[in-house]
Structure formats: structure tokens, C-alpha cells
Design a protein that fits this description.
The structure is a single chain. The chain is of the alpha/beta class. The protein is built from 9 helices and 14 strands. The protein is globular. The strands form 3 sheets. The protein has a 6-stranded mixed β-sheet with strand order 6-7-8-3-9-10. Helix content is 33%, strand content 26%.
């Protein structure tokens, strides 16, 4: 009996380094991204995110290490299998929106009729169907951003790399783009989000790669990363006198609207130990949860620590 080998990973970066004169932009970076995944790429300005993206896209050649796309070294045909949304605008501003999308679709290998159909379909999806005949520079900044996102998805690439996709979008448009990204990944495509918006990463991504000074500083399951970096605090609703517990460092002044009280534990204590104390003291515990640190707080803390040790 033969077993089928697993499909190749959409992206595999193995010990990639890149130097520009005296600047080490990437320092032995390794990561893997799976099919159907929304993967977060975060880091401060100048951390190496753009260099990493351009290395994956074969725009920049690494000094050492290897990059594989869909199971092999990047080849000419792979340019049609990857959609890219750069942070800077890349549209022909004096041309009609529909014509621009059709042209970009043709560059990705679509026939003229297929490019036209895809352009119409994506403009409809982004509520821009009535703007196909307008020139790009007649659109608002937010609508131009949606056109550029449509261009990244237009040819149905296996991999979509989006750099700050919500730039310039109002809340309604941002919600629409988020829904499109989820749909695209759910269909089996791979999406990489490069962004400074930690709330976007938390809402969409299951795994994250954080880079600082060209080096990996965090990588893995987002929930596990947040668990590892969470504070020594819990939210609890019970009948106990928390101040009587030797594991407690501080108790918030009063419960919130749900009756929850934030309890900060001493550094040596764990939430499990505190819960055990509550049970041992016959407290009626209605709710108990570890207080998770926002990804933005983790980001700032890690970046500051990296700068201090550099």
C-alpha cells in the first residue's frame, strides 16, 4: 500500500541572509507558510520585512540560504502564481479602472476575456462595479486601495502577499477587505499579511513571524505566543476574598460590568495555582480566565528588548 506524500509548502525560507553594505537586513531567517493559511509578518520599520518579501518574490537574491515556492526554487512561471500588494501605489492613475485591471490580469497570463471577467467579478466584490469606466485618479484613496487589492487577487494566485492592505480604508471597507481575505484563504490559498496593525493580525492570523534587526524574534502559533507572554493576571468572578491569598499581588478596585475582577499575581505564582487555592478555600467560581496580553503590547516589549541587547 502506497501513501501519498503531503503537498509541498507554499513558502519555505531556510536560513536566508542578506547584507546591504554594512547593514545585515536578514540574518539566517527561516520560516514556513502552509496552504490555506493567513500568516502574519510583523516588525518595526527597517526590521527586514520588505527585504524578506522581495526575497520570496525573487526580486532580491539572498547571500546565503534557500527559498522555495510551492515546493521548488522560484522560477519564471511562479510570477503568475503569486499576487503582490505593495505598500506604495502601483496603478496607472490616468487609465480607466477596468482597463487597468484587465491589463494587469493579462500580465499574469489571463486571456483577454478571462481578464475582463475577473476584473468585473472583483470590482463587484469590492462594491466598485460602477467605477470601472472612471480613471484611477478620480477614485478616493480608499477605493484606489481596493482596486490594488483586487489586482493582487485578480488571477487567482496560489499565494497572495499583502503589504498594509488596510491602508487608507474606512471601517466599512476594512471589514469588507477582511472578509475577502478570509474567503480567499478558506478556498485553499495562502495569504501573507505584512502590517503594523496588530489588531488586524489578531483578527485574521493563526500564526505570526516577528522580525527585528533582521532576526526572528517571535515565530509560531499566535495563541501560544500570547499565552507565553501573558501577564501574571486573571479575570475572575467568585465568592473568594482574593486579598487573603498569598499568591495575589494586587486586586483591582472593583468589578467590571460583568462582575469580573482583575487579580494580579506575584511573579512566582501561576493562574493554575491561584485557581487551586480558590477551590481549596471552597470558593464558588463562576468565571476564571487568564488575562491575555494584546499582541501590540508583546510587539512593543519584544522590540524594546531586542534594541537593548543589540
Amino acid at each position: 500500500m502506497t501513501t501519498e506524500s503531503p503537498p509541498p509548502l507554499p513558502i519555505r525560507v531556510d536560513r536566508v541572509s542578506k547584507r546591504f553594505d554594512k547593514t545585515l537586513a536578514l540574518d539566517a531567517v527561516s520560516l514556513e507558510v502552509g496552504a490555506g493559511e493567513i500568516f502574519g509578518l510583523v516588525g518595526p520599520n527597517g526590521a527586514g520585512k520588505t527585504t524578506l518579501i522581495r526575497t520570496v518574490l525573487d526580486i532580491i537574491k539572498p547571500d546565503s540560504g534557500t527559498v522555495e515556492v510551492l515546493g521548488h526554487a522560484f522560477g519564471p512561471a511562479d510570477r503568475d502564481r503569486i499576487g503582490y500588494l505593495p505598500e506604495e501605489r502601483g496603478l496607472y492613475t490616468r487609465q480607466p479602472v477596468g482597463a487597468v485591471l484587465e491589463y494587469l490580469g493579462a500580465l499574469k497570463g489571463l486571456t483577454r476575456s478571462a481578464a475582463k471577467a475577473a476584473a468585473h467579478r472583483w470590482l463587484e466584490r469590492f462594491d466598485l462595479a460602477d467605477m470601472a469606466a472612471k480613471k484611477v485618479d478620480q477614485l478616493s484613496k480608499g477605493n484606489q486601495q481596493k482596486v490594488q487589492i483586487a489586482a493582487a487577487f485578480l488571477a487567482g494566485p496560489s499565494i497572495a502577499i499583502l503589504d498594509e492592505p488596510l491602508s487608507g480604508l474606512d471601517p466599512v471597507s476594512a471589514r469588507l477587505v477582511n472578509a475577502v481575505i478570509r474567503e480567499y484563504a478558506a478556498a485553499g490559498h495562502t495569504v501573507i499579511l505584512s502590517t503594523h496593525q496588530m489588531n488586524l493580525v489578531e483578527s485574521l492570523c493563526s500564526r505570526v513571524f516577528m522580525i527585528a534587526r533582521g532576526r526572528r524574534v517571535l515565530y509560531g502559533d499566535l495563541k501560544e505566543i500570547k499565552r507565553q507572554h501573558s501577564s501574571h493576571a486573571v479575570l475572575v468572578r467568585s465568592t473568594a476574598d482574593y486579598r487573603a491569598c498569598p499568591l495575589v499581588a494586587r486586586v483591582a478596585d472593583g468589578p467590571d460590568e460583568e462582575g469580573l475582577v482583575q487579580v494580579d499575581l506575584v511573579d512566582a505564582a501561576s493562574p493554575d495555582a491561584f485557581l487551586a487555592w480558590l477551590v481549596a478555600h471552597n470558593a464558588s467560581v463562576e468565571r476564571f480566565e487568564r488575562l491575555s496580553a494584546p499582541l501590540e503590547d508583546i510587539f512593543i516589549r519584544v522590540v524594546q528588548t531586542t534594541a537593548e541587547v543589540a
